[in-house]
């Protein structure tokens, strides 16, 4: 199947769904964001950097983990976090949570699986990350690669993708830098890559279309990973598969704001979008979108086509911003990988994103700002 042109992609993004202009925008209750109170960091031994990077991340889940809520035991322990510095040293920061008792119970309700099309029980599990016809679009050309929101996607030197969430911070998947037991070898000198279209590097205009973008690499100053991911030998869970990278110096590109993930019913078109560097299309930025299929307290289940390398992409949706009175693209999750979900005796396969819950928003916001008072409101 021939690849659609990037022009089609651009036009597709610029044209809002017609129904949005006809329907009254949703007015969901604002999410209550708790406050993380960090303790003094404790020095840890240096990392051995012995883990292998795992780009094709696949997990299995049954009804018990699907219905697990964010108020599980040892939650404050999971919200503690490690900080890895460029010199290889690391610290552990424990936290307290203020305002947790004020949470609206609706934020932690366990949505029932939607009764949409179901796959037949599979006796042999086959890796599926492309569902039917490939619905991905290659993003090409200066006007597209440097345009928002595509310009917020960056490469991670371990082989993953990340998304710019501030002038100096990149959000990505935890498994791109840590396997749950140790940091991956590539995390020792972790870098973030910014795409530079060929024409900006002096390439002649008539050759631009045949050239692939170059990458400008920037070193990472420090990396933060939640303790919920660093569990040692474990039954791997995607719930805390996210990490934040701080660059050595600020970039000049637009970034995408974070948001507590709303219900899919409160997303424009009930759709999510993300752009990443899929391994089967080397050197290309690949965009896709699709509807949300199912939701749990911590994960977003969908059938957006993706291949290894897309892990860590910023999953965004059009969220209604009451203060601006318009739909805004905001990061509501991080693309993690693939999961087999076994419920009611059936095996269903999905691509999965970690949703940004109020507690995760508070944690990531603190990592970005370094001041808990800046993270009370979304």
Structure description:
Its main location: secreted. It holds the Pfam family Trypsin. It is an enzyme of class 3 (hydrolase). It comes from Lates calcarifer (Barramundi). One of its GO terms (cellular component) is extracellular region. Strands 3, 7, 14, 15, 16, 17, 18 and 19 form an 8-stranded mixed beta sheet that branches. The protein has a 6-stranded antiparallel β-barrel with strand order 8-9-10-13-12-11. By secondary structure, it is mainly β. The N terminus is likely disordered. It is globular. The termini are far apart. The protein is built from 7 helices and 19 strands.
Beta-strand residue percentage: 25-35%
Judging from the principal axes of the Cα atoms, what is the shape?
Answer: globular
Number of strands: 19
What's the helix-strand series?
HHEEEHHEEEEHEEEEHEEEEEEEEH
Q: Summarize the biggest pleated sheet.
A: 8 strands, mixed
Number of helices: 7
Mean pLDDT: 82
* Rg over alpha carbons: 20 Å
Low-confidence stretches: 1-12, 14-22, 102-128, 203-209
Proportion of residues in helical segments: 10-25%
Whole-Å distance between the termini? Answer: 42 Å
Structural class label:
mainly beta
Please give a quick description of this structure.
The protein is mainly beta.
How do the helices and strands line up, and which of them pair or pack?
Layout: H1 6-14, H2 18-22, E1 35-38, E2 42-44, E3 58-62, H3 63-66, H4 75-79, E4 81-85, E5 90-93, E6 95-98, E7 137-139, H5 142-145, E8 153-156, E9 161-164, E10 169-172, E11 191-196, H6 205-208, E12 214-226, E13 243-247, E14 271-276, E15 285-295, E16 299-302, E17 314-321, E18 326-343, E19 346-355, H7 358-369
Parallel strand pairs: 3-18
Antiparallel strand pairs: 1-6, 2-5, 4-5, 4-12, 7-15, 8-9, 8-11, 9-10, 10-13, 11-12, 12-13, 14-15, 15-16, 16-19, 17-18, 18-19
């Amino acid at each position: 199947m021939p690849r659609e042109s990037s022009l089609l992609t651009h036009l597709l993004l610029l044209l809002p769904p017609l129904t949005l202009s006809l329907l009254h925008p949703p007015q969901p209750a604002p999410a209550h964001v708790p406050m993380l109170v960090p303790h003094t960091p404790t020095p840890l031994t240096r990392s051995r950097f012995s883990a292998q990077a795992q780009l094709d991340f696949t997990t299995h889940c049954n009804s018990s983990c699907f219905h697990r809520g964010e108020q599980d035991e040892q939650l404050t322990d999971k919200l503690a976090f490690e900080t890895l510095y460029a010199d290889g040293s690391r610290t552990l920061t424990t936290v307290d949570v203020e305002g947790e008792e004020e949470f609206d119970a609706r934020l932690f309700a366990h949505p029932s699986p939607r009764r949409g099309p179901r796959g037949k029980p599979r006796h042999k599990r086959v890796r599926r990350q492309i569902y039917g016809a490939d619905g991905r679009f290659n993003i090409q050309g200066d006007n597209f690669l440097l345009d928002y929101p595509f310009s917020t996607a960056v490469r991670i030197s371990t082989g993953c993708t990340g998304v710019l969430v501030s002038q100096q911070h990149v959000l990505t998947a935890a498994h791109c830098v840590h396997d749950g037991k140790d940091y991956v070898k590539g995390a020792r000198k972790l870098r973030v890559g910014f795409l530079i279209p060929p024409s900006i590097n002096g390439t002649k205009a008539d050759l631009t279309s045949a050239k692939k973008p170059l990458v400008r690499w920037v070193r990472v100053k420090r990396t933060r990973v939640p303790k919920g991911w660093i569990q040692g030998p474990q039954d791997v869970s995607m719930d805390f598969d996210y990490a934040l990278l701080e660059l050595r110096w600020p970039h000049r590109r637009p970034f995408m704001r974070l948001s507590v993930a709303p219900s899919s019913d409160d997303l424009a078109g009930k759709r999510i979008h993300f752009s990443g560097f899929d391994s089967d299309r080397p050197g290309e930025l690949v965009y896709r979108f699709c509807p949300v299929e199912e939701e749990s307290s911590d994960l977003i289940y969908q059938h957006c086509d993706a291949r290894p390398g897309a892990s860590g992409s910023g999953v965004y949706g059009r969220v209604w911003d009451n203060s601006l009175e318009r739909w805004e693209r905001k990061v509501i999750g991080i693309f993690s990988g693939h999961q087999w979900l076994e419920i009611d005796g059936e095996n269903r396969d999905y691509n999965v994103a970690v949703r940004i819950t109020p507690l995760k928003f508070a944690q990531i916001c603190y990592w970005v700002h370094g001041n808990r008072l800046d993270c009370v409101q979304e």
